[in-house]
């Protein structure tokens, strides 16, 4: 089988070179063949830096005719790890032929006609990005430019994709038929749902434009029209199709799993952030990624209105984006009859078994491993983890959780040792030991004796090992990425990122991306705690216990004295990042 890639679209302004060194799924990556891959792909940038990828111990690359090359940022969400393709509504795909196809084409034409009056609300987004440099965290990479699409909504606001303005330095908007670019301000970025909200202070921008109205979630075979500014020209572009599937999708920006629409309209680079209209001229979604596969044509993905409205209402309610909550568990299907009998389930009972509970999740106080979740907020959960969605459709019960807001309560019914119990749990955002993104902040670092210590994140791994980091990164880091759970809210995985060679660190030069377990016998909880312990150390030696039973020992006085010379040699302004100084 050929390479399977889901891609995001954002058009490059100028193509110069390729780079995979990015934070989050870099917006640079939107530039591969006019679309952005479901995992990091090598992309063309403007004034981008070439990336050197380090080799490491990792999983062997899969090969063979029937293997799928699917690079994902992170493991599936906790409730779906181990069965990330389980939440489907039956893999319903629209296949049109004869009169049915002709009818769909007519409906698509009608939809395009209805969308025409709303096209003036579709804008072109120009962004200059300056990404962090994880290999040299005290500086940033060279800036580059990109263009994408967006649209005007009520309240003098504009929506586009998060990856379109990620690590933005400057954002400008241009209306249809205008020759003026207006400076925009980014109000909020929803990394998980790949949506960003912008505004423009210049009153002239809002003159003569009516905001788009949102429509309901479309049904299968409903006509949709995608409008935007894709690659291939500078004017507005319109493509039409139908809704062919509605299910929980992996959002490639950070591999979160939320409701999504699959359509058969083309979504190319530059389409990202553009609206999808129904046959009444109302917006039913935001174009954000596409599927590239030799056996598939014109498969695009749209963020539906329930996800969009969740983002907008979250911002209006809290003044900022707080994210989509999760239920902090890993779960197992209960389709095997013997498994159901062993936990005391009656013939008419259905549900999913809890494998592990996140220690940092609020529900860890009430839920336990081996509990069987029977229902969530009064909705019964099937043995395969799905719940009724619409007529003839089912969807993963994580959809019910994603409809909630951070801090909301939910009622959960569980079976524990043959007894039915009900609990009220508080939902919260997910705390990962290795986070999927760094929320636009610069990476943290600490330097002593030439040793550069960093906290690991998915963007860090992608920067170090490229788009194939799931194969090339050290096995122990991958194990932490896929299976480890944070034991506290502020826990981080700290590594020796590299060693800046000097006389003080002779013999340690080859240490690269090795986890720091303890310092002078005390466990390392996070990067800040390590920096504080080293700075306050009065002992004769600095002793770092590393993974693979390695140790690093330096004389305290000499190591601290050599640090300033090493910083000067490499033009590093400070021995630690600003966030560690507070």
UniProtKB/TrEMBL annotation:
Domain PDZ: 342-427
GO biological process: proteolysis
Compositional bias segments (type: Polar residues): 40-50
Record field: compositional bias (Basic residues): 1-13, 53-64
Pfam family, one: PDZ_2
Organism superkingdom: Eukaryota
Domain Protease Do-like PDZ: 434-579
Composition skew (Basic and acidic residues), residue ranges: 65-86
UniProt-recorded Gene Ontology molecular function terms: serine-type peptidase activity
Keywords on record: Hydrolase, Protease, Serine protease
InterPro entries on file: DEGP_PDZ, DEGP_PDZ_sf, PDZ, PDZ_sf, Peptidase_S1_PA, Peptidase_S1_PA_chymotrypsin, Peptidase_S1C
Region (Disordered), start-end ranges: 1-86
Family: Belongs to the peptidase S1C family.
Name of this protein: Protease Do-like 9
Source organism of this protein record: Solanum stoloniferum
